[in-house]
Amino acid sequence: MNYLYLWPIFNSCNIQEEVKELLDADAFIKVDEKWKEIMSKVAKDLHVLKLSDIAGLERDLKGSLKTLETLQKKLGAYLEEKQKYFPRFYFLPNEDLIEILGDSNKPKLV
C-alpha cells in the first residue's frame, strides 16, 4: 500500500473537517510523524545493519501498517459514499478520486 496517496485527503482543509472523525485524521498524522522520525534516524547512518539499533523499529512499523490498513478501509467506505452521490466517480481509481476530493477547494480543478 502506498500511503502517499492518502496524504492529500488528510491535508486538505475542506476534507479534513468532513472526515476528521470518520477517518481518524489524528491517527494518520501520528503515522506520518512516526515515519518522518524513523526516516530522520535512518538518514543519520545509511548502513542497513544500523536499522537494528533503532529501538522498537519493527513494532512501530507493524503498528503503523495496521493503522494505515484500518484507515484505508475507512477511506474506501468514505469514497464509496461519495460515489453514490456522484456516479461518475465510479469510473475513477481511488488515487484519482482522492486527488479530486483533495482539490475540492479549487473548483476549476475538480
Describe this structure in words.
By secondary structure, the protein is mainly α. The protein has one domain. Helix content is 67%, strand content 0%.
Structural class: mainly alpha
Strand content: under 5%
Largest sheet: none
The N- and C-terminal alpha carbons lie at a distance of 25 Å
Low-confidence stretches: none
Oligomer: single chain
Radius of gyration, in Å, reads 16 Å
Descriptive terms for the model:
110 residues, mainly alpha, elongated, 4 helices
Topology (elements, then pairings):
Blueprint: H1 7-10, H2 13-44, H3 57-85, H4 94-102
Helix pairs in contact: 2-3
Question: TL;DR of this structure?
Answer:
The protein has 4 helices and no strands. It has 110 residues and is an all-alpha fold. The mean pLDDT is 77.
